[in-house]
């Protein structure tokens, strides 16, 4: 019985420590401005770690690629990344403007296509945040012609 109480106590301490670390990470994320959160999340995309990026999104995140498609929820975003990010995209951010819950970013992006060649695009993304997480993206993406 004594051993069981010791084991339960140790497990509770480990659980409390894990919860404290998780709460600390959430506090740090809430203290970051939305531009910094987006930058941190996109670092994961640049490294091909899409699951860590998706942790920065709300469950019901909505991505609108104007004139092309709309993605509803993390599962559709995950499927999109799997299909189009054959290799991690290469971003070149020109400008980021934050106002309230919104961050607008302009720049260039390179994506490797199924033939192994890079396609180049200009973009203007409008990101909306809820409680430190990406809730919505409205993306204007234009292919650069050679």
Automatic annotation (TrEMBL):
The stretch of residues making up the signal peptide is 1-20
Give the domain of life: Bacteria
UniProt keyword terms in alphabetical order: Signal
Q: Which residues form the SnoaL-like domain?
A: 43-136
Return the Pfam families for the record.
SnoaL_2
Q: Which InterPro entries match?
A: NTF2-like_dom_sf, SnoaL-like
Q: What is this protein called?
A: Nuclear transport factor 2 family protein
